[in-house]
Amino acid sequence: MIKKYLLILSLCLGDQVCAQEIYFKIPDTIRNKDYDYLFERIKESENDPVKESLYLQSFLSKAKSEKNSQEIVNGYKNYLRRSPENLKLVYADSMIYTAKKSMDNALIGSAYLSKGIVYYAQKKHNYALDNYLIANNFISKTNDKYLIYKTKYNIAHIKYYLGFYDEAISLFRECIDYFKKGDSRGYLNSLHSLGLCYNRIGNYGLCTETNEKGIAEGRRLNNDEMEGYFNYSEGINQYFRSNYAAAIKKITYSLPIILKNKDFANEAVGYFYIGKSYWDLKNPQMAIAYFKKVDVIFNDKGYIRPDLRNNYELLISYFKSKSNPDRQLYYIEKLLKVDSILNSRYRYVSGRIHKEYDTKELLAQKKKAENLLDKRKYNDFIFTSVIVFLFLSVLFLIYRHIRNKRVYRQRFDELMKKSEVATKLESKNIANGIEDINQDTVAAVLKQLEKFEKDKKFLEKDLTLTKLAVAFDSNTRYISKIISHYRDKKFVDYLNDLKVDYLIILLKEDKMMRNYTNKALAEEIGFSSTQRFATAFFSRAKMPTSYFIEELLKEQ
């Protein structure tokens, strides 16, 4: 239905443009001006709609009369940037239509990328990803470095949205290195996004450093467009550092810039963390006022992300404490709607980005490596050296195989003797606690960890330290330190070991599971990828999954 509407609207717009071309004549004073001149006049006329319209029409009319596909696309892009939300996608489709006629991969990819960016701004992440992937298909066939890194930047934002922070960090760092050479806005945007990732993985110190660097670099480059966003990001970061008054001050100071840009997503997030700060300062009345603002944006725009889910949990808790069942029921229904939206959006976007982007990137790297090898010409000496190396490698592999079989068998026998999950280590005395965490807080978190392990909540897919902190009504720094101190391991290792130990028991007890593939086993215990599962199993069991199952089948 939406596609039909857009098609009709696009046809209507096409008729309108044709009609304009029939009656519109470029004034003599600018008839011979180049595109750069017209573009500068468009920018200068932002506050004068009559002049702006004149230059917009002149730019597009000139491009069409000269049959210049690149500039026709730019002409539609000029309209897209200045049009109301309900027309942006129409102009984006006009860009794509023109680009396709040109048969230029870079132009087509750029047009689809622009459409994806429109969808992303509307927080329609599934549609944004669809267009990014199409754009990537065309752009990957070109040598246009700018478009390649622009695509990486936008894909990185999808990964950030999904919670794949380490992968997003890697992409944003690549973008920083590239854009630093000549694109100040791209450089500052990438720095800002990198800081957001550091915050989400709990590295608040590095987040602060990145925000401070972003502000300093913006001033060095005479570009203050992102300064408000760096301050805003630091305000949220201060919340996680338990500096609630500073968080309220910084976010409140930055909100006018967010509102001016009509950035409803960051507006909602800002309200949420101001509310959370008041909540932790024991001022629930002020907190609830801001939580309600988040709900208004959700009603109007349908915007939600995983950490904002807690907004509704706190509203439910508040109205329950006030014995107000009507409001409590209202926000319970809202929370159910939030969960439904998050589940459907994340499942779709997560599946496509791994299947169609990550796999393609790996195949591209493989092809580059193969091409590099094809171009190399080995002389006789190198060829002989390779043969010798291969022979020695085979001998080494045979030796390692025999040694591994012996080690694997010993480890298998040890695992077979164990009858319960071995991840839980002997608890250290709580009195011998952690210096900077209150003893009661430590005891409460340890109790929640025991219940978390007992109820097998570790099997949840894509569970992160941030999600666990939200579930425990704590923060990531506390959870991380307590797990490290009382379970003697990092959070990721702790989670992986719980999953693997649980799977070992399942494989020992359930013969049917021994027929599962690694992919199915990974799904069963909540791993986001087969590779991560295989690595975690080997790290914990000291043998591959295939060997363990083979030995179980022999025992059977």
Automatic annotation (TrEMBL):
The chain crosses the membrane at residues 381-399. Keywords: Membrane, Transmembrane, Transmembrane helix. Pfam families: TPR_12 (PF13424). InterPro entries: HTH_AraC, TPR-like_helical_dom_sf, TPR_rpt. Residues 459-551 form the HTH araC/xylS-type domain. Signal peptide: none annotated. This is Tetratricopeptide repeat protein. It comes from Flavobacterium algoritolerans.
